[in-house]
Give the backbone structure.
Amino acid sequence: MTVRLGEATAWQIEKLWDRFYAEEDPNGEGKQRFMTRVKELGLVDTASPAAFQGLFLYHKDDVEGAISAAEALAAQKQR
């Protein structure tokens, strides 16, 4: 069975960030930059939680890489 969960809200994206980067980003500065970027790119409520999870897994322990990869996720969504 397949269950559609919908697109990721800002709250969900932030919680995923915390799950992956709590140790690397203890003051939350990276999260703020990432959230600003994903909002600018229109990814909130348009990309799946799985897409963000994949991005974070690919850039595990790499806050700057995750922030940079937001543009690639947006480009992928436009296809």
